[in-house]
Specification:
By secondary structure, the chain is an alpha+beta fold. The chain is built from 3 helices and 5 strands; from the N terminus they run E-H-E-E-H-E-H-E.
């Protein structure tokens, strides 16, 4: 089975409105591995790992976010298994603290 890992940064009105919780729910529904966290600059950062088509669909969902979000931009770059180690032990997908 093919496996893709992308690290994504979402900018706009994406903090303080439940974006991380929404993204966590979406990623779990899609059975993806990875994590999500807020960044000090006001953006949200996430890592998605799974089948390439499902990862691409998740990135597309990030462009809209929950109803209260205003997404200005979504950028993504290829990542590797090393970044997956940031998630909590025993979890497929983790909500990490803000950095």
């Amino acid at each position: 089975m093919s496996h893709a890992i992308l690290q994504v940064t979402i900018r706009g009105r994406v903090q303080g409105i439940g974006y991380r919780a929404w993204l966590d729910h979406q990623a779990r529904q899609c059975k993806l591995e990875g994590w999500v966290r807020n960044r000090g600059d006001g953006s949200v950062e996430a890592l998605f790992a799974g089948p390439p088509t499902v990862v691409a669909e998740m990135v597309a969902l990030c462009r809209h976010g929950p109803p209260s979000a205003r997404v200005d931009s979504v950028t993504s770059e290829t990542a590797d298994d090393e970044q997956l180690k940031l998630r909590y032990a025993g979890e497929r997908f983790s909500v990490l603290p803000t950095i």
